[in-house]
Amino acid sequence: MIGSIRGLGNARQANYTGAVMAPGVLAARPDVKAALDVLSAWIENQRAYSGLPGATLSVVHDQELVWAAGFGWADLERRVSATPDTLYRIASITKTFTATAILQLRDAGRLQLDDPLTRHLPWFSITTKLPDAPPITIRHLLTHTAGLPREAAFPYWTDFVFPDAERLREGLTRQEGILATETQWKYSNLGLALAGDVVEAVSGEPYADYVQRHILDPLEMTATAVRAPDPADRRLARPYGRRMPDGSRGAAPHVDTLAIGAAANMTTSVMDLSRFAMLQFRDGPAGGAQILRGSTLREMQRIHWLEPDWQAGWGLGFRIQRVGGKTSFGHGGSLPGYRTQLRMWPADKLAVIAMTNADDGDPLTMVERAQQYVGPSIAKATARDDKRAPEPGWERYAGRFRNRWGDVQVLLVDDGLLLIEPSLPDPLAMATRLYPIEGQPHTFRAEEKDPYGSHGETVLFELGANGRAMRIRFGQNYIDAVENW
After folding, report:
1. Per-residue confidence (pLDDT) for residue 2, from 0 to 100
2. What pTM did the predictor assign?
3. Which pLDDT belongs to residue 84?
4. Is the Cα dihedral 179, 180, 181, 185 positive or negative?
């Protein structure tokens, strides 16, 4: 069965339940709707035949929630359907909010990413066998390159008893660093828990209060909680363990991660988390719902630690991957009874969120299928074509130009002006497209695939007495016509 669906259109399958909401602009496009139908059919089949209790997904393009749907059950025993508003524990996706808080404080001038951790947490100390390693910094925490143990000194993933702040600090006296800083990445819940302590120390607010006031409230994420939820909350998906060989599936324990909270404790819905995803595609100065300026968002989303195969690494709080020729960033999460995934493709301004309520849920595959099935149709529907038909008089710019470095040819084609280098093995593959700049006569902006050239710069045609181009200026340099004057 499938719970309430938003943006899907007119669902006809008998196993769809709940309200079908009006489709969004993109979801109403026939090719997008067809792709969403394929995705929905695949998810429901996978869920039903694997015995997965429930799942909820959303697809975002830029600032539009394209689609959100619930599949199966939030509570098997009470027969409560999973819906777009069902709450799930998002576990380690919390780390991206902790990183956001750190960058807010950095932008406010209250810390620097390369500050030693002890500048803000003077009580921090851990034994190391590598005394010549650089000191641990805040940046190391966010990129998992601090060399810290994965966990604090307690078996909380076995007994589900998490330490409070005092016990976590006490446990550090019994731990030691695993790797030298900046030698390789090693995922660490302990490290992000410490980053949450930095937020508290620098802001003077409890971590949960800071995130609520400075992130959730401005983004209007009203269904999201930083502190552990009430397990009796009927909006919360009930957590289930993995399916055992006999087909049985028990309930998973409710946990409060306490001092590990900045790494793992948040609860939200796909609807609310979609607001956080939309933030990642915005630009401009900070203020209001723009809780981080655009340049800081891009700083978080780009590589700060690159793996040796150059296919993946870490941004600031985000895992970054290169798959199928596309770069994505995001994070997954895992707590008892919950598996979640947030993934974003910046070039396409596409985000997919998947949440499940069982230990054997596979939200990553759901996210990948959504990108595979729906991504191309959204990209096609939202493609911006900047090409424009030539304007009257543009033939005056066509011709051959030469200097000591070589020849270039300006071509008038049916969709504008191209500048090519005829000496290249494939001139069209490296062509420069020229876009007119409004209000500046004979002036164009260059767009190239090769950033070594004039990409983004101004191209000015100077005319001779015959009205045709006699010179092209690329910034301060120029090239003269061969035969136009």
Report:
1. 52
2. 0.89
3. 97
4. negative
Is-contact 481 468, C-beta < 8 A? yes
> Is 54 within the bounds of a domain?
no
- 133 dihedral zone (left: phi>0; alpha: psi -120 to 50; beta): beta
Residues 253, 174 within the same domain: yes
Low-confidence residues of the chain, pLDDT below 70? 1-24, 385-387, 484-485
Going from the C-alpha of 259 to that of each of 25, 151, 200, 212, 262, the distances in angstroms are 43, 11, 12, 17, 7
How many domains does the structure of the chain reveal? 2
- Spatial neighbors of 84 by CB under 8 A, at least 6 apart, are 3, 4, 5, 6, 56, 58, 68, 69, 70, 269, 270, 271
Same domain, 339 and 416: no
Q: At what angle do helices 94-107 and 294-301 cross, to 10 degrees?
A: 130
Looking at residue 19, its pLDDT comes to 27
pLDDT value of position 475: 85
Query: Cα separation of 47 and 29, whole Å?
Result: 27
Note whether 153 and 270 are same-domain residues: yes
So what's the pLDDT on residue 21?
33
Q: How far apart, in whole angstroms, are the C-alpha atoms of residue 357 and residue 270?
A: 13
Final residue of a structural domain among 354, 382, 410: 382
Predicted pLDDT of residue 464: 94
> Beta-carbon neighbour count of residue 70 at 10 Å?
28
What are 21's two structure tokens?
A: 């909401």
Q: Enter the tokens of residue 180.
A: 């030298």
Whether 257 contacts 225, CB under 8 Å = no
Each residue's pLDDT tens digit, 84-101: 999 999 999 999 999 999
Which domain-ending residue is among 345, 360, 382? 382
- Tell me: do 326 and 364 sit in the same domain: yes
- C-alpha to C-alpha distance for 320 and 299, rounded to whole angstroms: 12
